[in-house]
Amino acid sequence: MEYDREGFVEAADGTRLFYEVLGAGEPAVVLTDGIGCDGFAWRYLAPRLGRRHRVVHWHFRGHGRSGPSLDPERLSIEDLAGDLRRICDHLDVERPVIAGHSMGVQVALEYYRQNADDVAALILMCGTFGRITTTFHGTDVLDQVLPGLVRGMRMFPSVARAVWGRVPAAMAFRVACAGRELDGTRIQEEDFQRYWEHASLMDPEVFLPMLQHAGRHDARGFLAEVEVPTLVVAAEHDTFTPMALAEEMAGAIPDAELVVIEDASHAAPVEQPELIAECVEDFLSSRLGLSRARA
Q1: How many domains does the chain have?
Q2: What pTM did the predictor assign?
Q3: What does the CA dihedral 153, 158, 161, 164 come to, rounded to 10 degrees?
Q4: Cα separation of 283 and 19, whole Å?
Q5: Beta strand 55-58 with 16-22: parallel, antiparallel or unpaired?
Q6: Is residue 294 part of a domain?
Q7: 293 occurs within a structural domain
Q8: Is 273 helix (H, G, I), strand (E, B) or coil?
Q9: What is the SS3 assignment for 293?
Q10: What are the per-10-residue average pLDDT scores of the chain (295 residues)?
Q11: By CB atoms within 10 Å of each CB, which of 11, 41, 51, 156 scores lowest?
């Protein structure tokens, strides 16, 4: 899939942020990735949404075609939401629909917290309101081991870079499918390979601290203050952010809609894109009064 145009904008600290735009029509839908991703979740959804909307997809600092963070301390969810504001301002995007997948859900919620009057709606997919390292696979094990991993990475950065991402994509795919981290009957190996290759090339000095920041960020306290239409999409077999968290989030946001995708994993937007596209279009049509895209 090719976007219509692309470009860069400078973050507040000078970091170059990449964006790409597809289609036309308002409100714009801004696609926000999870950590380690550069469009994995949106490959099939973006063209569908682009039939009716201007679709903006961007890369986090240190991800994809965005530059490395010029300030290594600015890797928090709050910083990423600030980066997104720079992109929206640059593209004259007014009151967008913010769609987030995985950690992108936290960024979407934080963007709303910082810009409540400038958001039309939220679409929150396969993610949670915060502290993701305490709920990964339903335990806090990741939260316990992550500080040690960060310390080791900082003490031996060359070793960390040498070890990072050495597992072949084909092997990782088989293991993920066998452990039901992915639905191997619906996801294509080549899609996973694109994700894995990008993640394996990432600098661990970006990935691990950013994950640590995501583990500290918590939007639970202002969910009740969300006053825009919100769609929460949960996957029945999501082991990364268990479905109970999506149910809790939907219950805490006033008048939020919850859709559960059956027989789906954390990669539901790639596994069942047509079903999710239908859900998103129904939501935008009913809650924002928009006409549906033609098939």
Answers
A1: 1
A2: 0.93
A3: -70
A4: 25
A5: antiparallel
A6: no
A7: no
A8: helix
A9: coil
A10: 92 98 95 95 95 96 97 96 98 97 98 97 96 85 80 71 70 76 85 85 90 95 97 95 94 96 95 96 90 54
A11: 156
Among 191, 184, 198, smallest CA distance to 38 is for 198
Rounded distance between C-alpha atoms, residue 53 and residue 46, angstroms = 10
Look up the domain containing 79 and give its range. Answer: 5-288
Separation CA 214–CA 107 (nearest Å):
9
Closest CA to 104 of 125, 131, 133, 83: 125
β-pair partners for 32: 100
**What CATH number does residue 214 fall under?**
3.40.50.1820
- Strand order in 230-235's β-sheet? 5-10, 16-22, 55-58, 29-32, 97-101, 121-125, 230-235, 257-261
215, 134 in Cβ contact below 8 A? yes
Radius of gyration of the chain (CA): 18
Q: What is the DSSP string of 9-75?
A: EE-TTS-EEEEEEE---SS-EEEEPPTT-SSGGGTTHHHHHTTTS-EEEE--TTSTTSPPPSSTT--
Q: Is residue 223 part of a domain?
A: yes
- Give yes or no for a contact between 76 and 70, defined as CB atoms under 8 angstroms apart: no
273: in domain: yes
Could you give the CA distance from residue 98 to residue 32 in angstroms, rounded to a whole number? 7
Residue that the structure tokens 């999710």 belong to: 276
* Distance, CA of 104 to CA of 35 (rounded, Å): 7
